[in-house]
User: Which sequence fits this backbone?
């Protein structure tokens, strides 16, 4: 038995600060869905000839997300987690305002891409930072808190969109939306509102310590020991310094991309990339990005759609809390398997609902079931697994590769949906459910359980 004494208040405070990056990630990622009916009219992205432009408007931020995740991989192992979190916070502030005041479609797209860079940085760094400062027995729960803040950001964006938008008369046509306050100014404030939490994040991130694992990697043991002493006690600090040092320096001291193709960890790298792909192509994110089309096809009007979006965000929040309580109890692998089967079943039924033109409440209920399974399984657990399965001295690069895969997958998912929609929404959900069944088999065969193990124990076992 160890004699560690943890400073839980301190651990929670620095974890929550880092997780504010997740909140902004969630807000900026989803806010566009509520603003879409209005900026679509403002920038004249209507008609069949605008399908590509609309897909680009909805997905362009994901190009920035990819760039941000690559940037974090290149720079986080060199400059540390904290400095890049500060950069992300600054970008969140600037791009929220720039998107809101954009006077042309081109400036709107450029601002969204730059905002995506901030999302890419935060999506990579926040879970990695939390995983590296968290004690093993609490790591799953604390990394899942990052997903909870993402969900809070999603819900916050949905609520802000709903509250900012003035009541929309039933039966109003798309062109008439342009002449309303929503069509001219309301959608702008939906984006600008994100600057408020971004300023809070920017201030607080200066107060957190650097990752002790990164400090040891850079041979700054005194600083690392100071951080670990504050997280636990001297006994915990001594054991962690010894374990991390052994893990880091029994391998090469340098970090480069060629290390990712080491045959001893290549399968793990591919697994991380596949999980990132699966999280996106499970199809859940189309529900948030294209809520207008999905709920319109189910018979709902614009005003009802904004309310339905808030309901889906609320369900996502509730089941994210379930994930926090279960990820260190049930385990990562079992939750992912449950999520794949649950979502696949709901999406198969959704496909049949749209195919046979079933509208109204049954469709909404199936959407909520899919969102519930996603929120307590694939959404948080993929981030947990990706943050913990890679060795210390390549974690920044490997997580960057996985999150880059995630953002490429997300871009393809969001960009292609308007084209798939022309075949019928039912086909989209059948494609996603088929991939979930494949994901179930891959996880069942290849993923080992990691709950309760230190990052160094996981690395040793994988090698």
Assistant:
């Amino acid at each position: 038995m160890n004699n560690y004494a943890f400073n839980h208040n301190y651990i929670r405070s620095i974890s929550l600060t880092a997780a504010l990056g997740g909140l902004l990630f969630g807000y900026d990622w989803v806010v566009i869905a509520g603003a879409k009916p209005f900026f679509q009219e403002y920038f004249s992205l209507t008609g069949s000839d605008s399908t590509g432009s609309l897909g680009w408007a909805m997905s362009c931020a994901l190009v920035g997300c990819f760039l941000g995740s690559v940037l974090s991989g290149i720079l986080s192992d060199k400059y540390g987690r904290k400095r890049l979190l500060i950069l992300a916070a600054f970008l969140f502030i600037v791009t929220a305002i720039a998107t809101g005041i954009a006077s042309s479609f081109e400036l709107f797209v450029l601002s969204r891409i730059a905002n995506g860079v901030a999302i890419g940085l935060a999506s990579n760094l926040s879970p990695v930072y939390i995983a590296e400062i968290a004690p093993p027995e609490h790591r799953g729960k604390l990394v899942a808190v990052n997903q909870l803040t993402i969900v809070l950001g999603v819900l916050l964006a949905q609520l802000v969109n709903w509250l900012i938008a003035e009541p929309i008369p039933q039966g109003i046509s798309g062109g008439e939306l342009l002449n309303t306050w929503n069509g001219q100014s309301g959608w702008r404030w939906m984006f600008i509102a994100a600057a408020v939490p971004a300023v809070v994040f920017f201030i607080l991130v200066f107060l957190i310590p650097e990752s002790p694992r990164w400090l040891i990697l850079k041979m700054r043991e005194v600083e690392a020991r100071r951080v670990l002493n504050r997280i636990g006690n001297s006994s915990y600090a001594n054991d962690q310094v010894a374990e991390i040092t052994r893990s880091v320096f029994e391998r090469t001291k340098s970090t480069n991309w060629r290390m990712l193709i080491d045959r001893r960890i290549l399968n793990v790298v591919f697994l991380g990339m596949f999980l990132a792909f699966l999280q996106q192509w499970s199809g859940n994110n189309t529900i948030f990005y294209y809520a207008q089309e999905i709920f319109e096809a189910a018979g709902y009007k614009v005003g009802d759609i904004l309310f339905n979006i808030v309901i889906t965000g609320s369900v996502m929040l509730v089941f994210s809390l379930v994930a926090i309580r279960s990820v260190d109890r049930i385990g990562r692998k079992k939750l992912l398997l449950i999520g794949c089967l649950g979502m696949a079943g709901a999406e198969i039924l959704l496909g049949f609902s749209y195919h046979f033109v079933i509208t109204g409440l049954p469709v909404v209920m199936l959407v909520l079931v899919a969102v519930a399974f996603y929120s307590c399984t694939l959404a948080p657990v993929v981030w947990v697994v990706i943050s913990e399965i890679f060795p210390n001295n390549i974690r920044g690069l490997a997580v960057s590769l996985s999150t880059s895969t995630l953002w490429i997958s997300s871009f393809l998912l969001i960009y292609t949906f308007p084209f798939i929609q022309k075949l019928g929404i039912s086909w989209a959900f059948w494609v996603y459910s088929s991939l979930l069944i494949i994901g179930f088999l891959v996880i069942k065969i290849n993923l080992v359980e990691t709950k309760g193990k230190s990052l160094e124990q996981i690395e040793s076992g994988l090698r």
